[in-house]
Amino acid sequence: MVTTEREYVRSLRYIIDHYFPEMERLDLPQDLRGKRSVIFGNLEKLVDFHSQYFLKELESCCNHPLRVSHYQFGMYALYSKNKPKSDALQMFHHMDLASYLLKPIQRMSKYALLLKDLIKEVTEAQEQELSYLRAAAEMVKFQLRHGNDLLAMDPGQHAHGKLIANPGEGWQIDEMFHF
Q1: What HEC string does the chain produce?
Q2: Is the pLDDT of residue 43 over 70?
Q3: Which of 41, 58, 77, 89 could form a disulfide linkage to 147, CB 3.0–4.6 angstroms apart?
Q4: Which domains, and CATH codes, for the chain?
């Protein structure tokens, strides 16, 4: 899990390092100016949380994985709510931006599966650890549902189209419209 968490943090940082600067380019299409938070949501907070806190906690628990318990994942619900807005604008590079932006949502689902597997491995004698794992699993499930609920309640605009970008090479919009 530590290895995949490190890769996850690298993927999130890739977005910040390679796509955030694109949002400052002078040749950025007018429809995208000032839309960094629409496209990327609270991605910077997710990176900070995972790199400064969660990854360090995982690394310190390498020999005792059951010590990983309840963490603040509430920011994922907000990220999930924003995802359809960023989906409306696809940027392509080696891996398209939509794939990168989907990683946080997929990661929460992976945490849910991991916790489910850990719960199966814990014996009843490890009552406290089992309690922590169950609480963490419920919290992750809640955040996934909460993200879906926020998404369902958002009456915001929907946009369709494709934004093609190669960092450093410019932008092109195909069939962009709002309704």
Answers
A1: CHHHHHHHHHHHHHHHHHCCHHHHCCCCCHHHCCCHHHHHCCHHHHHHHHHHHHHHHHHHCCCCHHHCCCCCCCHHHHHHHHHHHHHCCCCCCCCCHHHHHHHHHHHHHHHHHHHHHHHHHCCCCCHHHHHHHHHHHHHHHHHHHHHHHHHHHCCCCCEEEEEEEECCCEEEEEEEEEC
A2: yes
A3: 77
A4: 2-178 (1.20.900.10)
